[in-house]
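Q: I'm building a small set of examples for a reading group on sequence design. Run inverse folding on the following structure and report the sequence directly after it, with nothing in between.
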């Protein structure tokens, strides 16, 4: 029964009374409350019915399927690596004279010693080293005393027919002396430079610093904390700072640019890869990943080798390192 029916029935029952009974308003209010309860009951029943109908439908497949657990993404092999901030070496001396055709000098490093390298011409190649330790003579030869800038020096010479690897007419000439500050300077020439030219070059050196030269490779990312342990014209090594006391090259991660030859054909055991869209091979090694060779073009070969005792790298890390190397054309 609706609210209007309740009200109509009560009015008919009391139509003969002169005034409304005092409880009429309360009876009306009671009817309103009963009506409200009925309406709420109907709404609740409808909601329950809707739920009872909807649940089987949802179970039957209308609800989106539960997400499939995803496999965790593989860890980044070079997490924590960064672009290396390398302090390029500055050479402390400037030549006042160079042999004709010597070409452009590059500043380099091997351990604690800084280098000045003339390698543009095979006929006039030279290398000058300055540092706390004397450099290697390269060869055994005849020594005799001389002077450079009025200071005692030792000169070593060797004929080409004895010096393995030289061409007919080449001659090894090396001179070693000590600077006023106690550092050792050593100049070596294994080409067509004469003894007189080598000594003239050494005597013409002035105590004026030469600015650094750019790296032969672009290195986008590397393990943190590495420094430039070796740098020459087309070769460099990144290694921990402790290796700077070692006068030998080849510490840490080393990159070299060479010429493709028949001897560079990969071994059948080598792994074939593609690095930056270029064919590459990874040599096998019991100590970890071996040398990675990337053929840049028909003539040039980029080789990356790792001294695992200095910088332990996994196979994936070595590949990722190589992918971020750029070589100028």
């Amino acid at each position: 029964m609706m609210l209007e029916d309740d009200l109509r029935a009560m009015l008919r029952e009391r139509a003969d009374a002169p005034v409304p009974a005092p409880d009429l308003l309360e009876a009306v209010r009671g009817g309103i409350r009963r009506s409200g309860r009925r309406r709420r009951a109907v709404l609740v029943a409808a909601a329950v019915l809707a739920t009872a109908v909807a649940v089987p439908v949802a179970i039957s497949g209308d609800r989106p399927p539960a997400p499939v657990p995803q496999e965790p993404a593989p860890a980044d092999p070079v997490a924590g690596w960064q672009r290396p901030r390398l302090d390029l070496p500055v050479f402390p001396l400037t030549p006042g004279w160079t042999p004709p055709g010597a070409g452009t000098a590059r500043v380099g490093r091997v351990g604690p010693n800084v280098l000045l390298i003339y390698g543009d011409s095979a006929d006039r190649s030279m290398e000058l080293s300055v540092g706390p330790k004397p450099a290697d003579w390269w060869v055994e030869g005849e020594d005799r005393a001389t002077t450079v800038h009025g200071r005692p020096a030792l000169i070593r010479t060797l004929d080409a027919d004895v010096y393995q690897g030289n061409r007919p007419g080449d001659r090894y000439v090396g001179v070693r002396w000590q600077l006023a500050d106690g550092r050792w300077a050593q100049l070596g020439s294994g080409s067509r430079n004469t003894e007189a030219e080598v000594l003239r070059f050494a005597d013409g050196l002035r105590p004026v610093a030469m600015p650094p030269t750019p790296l032969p490779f672009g290195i986008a990312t590397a393990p943190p904390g590495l420094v430039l342990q070796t740098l020459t014209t087309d070769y460099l090594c990144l290694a921990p700072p402790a290796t700077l006391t070692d006068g030998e090259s080849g510490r840490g991660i080393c990159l070299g640019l060479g010429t493709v030859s028949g001897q560079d054909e990969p071994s059948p055991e080598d792994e074939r890869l593609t690095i930056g869209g270029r064919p590459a091979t990874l040599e096998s090694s019991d100590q970890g990943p071996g040398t990675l060779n990337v053929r840049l073009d028909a003539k040039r070969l980029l080789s990356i080798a790792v001294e695992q005792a200095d910088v332990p790298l996994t196979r994936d890390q070595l590949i990722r390192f190589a992918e971020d190397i750029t070589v100028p054309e």
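Confidence is low (pLDDT under 50) at residues 14-61.
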